Amino acid sequence: MRRFAFVTCCLLCMMVAPVYAQQIDLAFGGGSLASSGNSLNLATPSEGGGAFVGFNGDVLFWHHMGVQGEVNWRASQGLYGGQIPDRPLFWDFNAIYFRRFSKTVGAEALAGIGGESIRFYSGTSNCDIYGNCTNYVSSNHFMGDVGGGLRFYVYRNLFVRPEIRLYLVHNNAEFSSSYPVHYGMSVGYTFGGSH
CA-CA distance, 155 to 189, in Å (whole number)? Predict the structure, then answer.
């Protein structure tokens, strides 16, 4: 039910945003996660490693400022402490500042809040009182994030963006660090905006 509400809210924002927007950007990306610690430490392993994929988008509605949202998740399951299959997922909403310096180059900086959901997979199904079943148990944490990226417009409004995010995860007791760094590259498209 929460996913349905989240998706509905995002769709409504996407329909209303163009009325006030000066620019909308949508992108798909991939990368990895760096974190201190040893991934085979059974007590508190590292969260780093693995391929991550995700979606992000922003709406600029006041000069060069706006809002941005994204979700990134590990593409394949990792092994928590070398034993339990797991998959971290990060989502966040940010204030963003974007400036296009020329027809082909722009830069962005952002900061905001969100959450981390770590999914630990088991061989059995976990069901709630409503009959909804999953094969994982989640551990959720509040987080802040800061980051940025450089946009290189390779063809008209199509861009490639190397990017980095520092996640500040509150009480990330399952892993050796509360400060994982996501780095990667996105491919996206700009709707509107000045060139």
Answer: 10
The second-level CATH assignment, the architecture, of 22-192 is Beta Barrel (2.40)
Contacts by residues 12-16 (CB-CB < 8 Å, ≥ 24 positions apart): 13/59, 14/57
Closest to 52 measured CA to CA, from 145, 129, 165: 165
The answer to pTM > 0.85 is no
Q: Is 125 exposed, middle or buried (CB count within 10 Å of its CB: 0-12, 13-18, 19+)?
A: exposed
Determine how many CB atoms are found less than 10 A away from the CB of residue 157.
Answer: 15
Q: How many Cβ atoms are within 10 Å of 131's Cβ, its own excluded?
A: 6
Q: What is the pLDDT of residues 106-127, one digit of tens each?
A: 999 999 999 999 999 987 787 8
Q: Encoding tokens for residue 104?
A: 């082909």
Token pair in block for residue 59: 């709406």
DSSP state of 2: H
Question: Own/partner pairs for 152-159, CB < 8 Å, 24+ apart?
Answer: 152/104, 152/105, 153/103, 153/104, 153/105, 153/106, 153/190, 154/104, 157/189, 157/190, 157/191, 157/193, 158/187, 158/188, 158/189, 159/25, 159/27, 159/106, 159/187, 159/188, 159/189, 159/190
pLDDT tens-digit profile of 120-152?
998 778 788 888 888 888 999 999 999 999 999
φ/ψ (deg, to 5) at 71:
-140, 135
